[in-house]
Known about the structure:
The protein has strands at 3-7, 10-13, 18-25, 34-39, 46-51, 58-60, 68-73, 78-83, 92-98, 103-104, 108-113. The protein is mostly beta strands and 114 residues long. The chain starts with a strand and ends with a strand.
Amino acid sequence: QVNLVESGGGLVQAGASLRLSCAASGRAFSWNTMAWYRQAPGKDRELVAVITSTGASTYNADSVKGRFTISRDNAKNTVYLQMNSLKPEDTAIYYCNAVQTGSWGQGTQVTVSS
Length: 114
């Protein structure tokens, strides 16, 4: 079991940057592939980015490619999502997911104003 707690969300203007953090408890973190999802009001949850357990491989959705970067620090049991050049359409609740254990965080709100 992995317990996940996201932080770092907030209200920013278009073009700004934010870094989300997802802190994990439990030894299972280091062997889990980790993912960030987001869900905007009235829309389905959308996969944003994925990182393998060692950090050797990453995936970014086309909608965020070139702007968002996923990374992890296994020594700190934390996965990050660096978000640059934010757009109003990035407004959503962002969730952290541990893929193998199926754990989810509670989410952190990101709001981008135009």
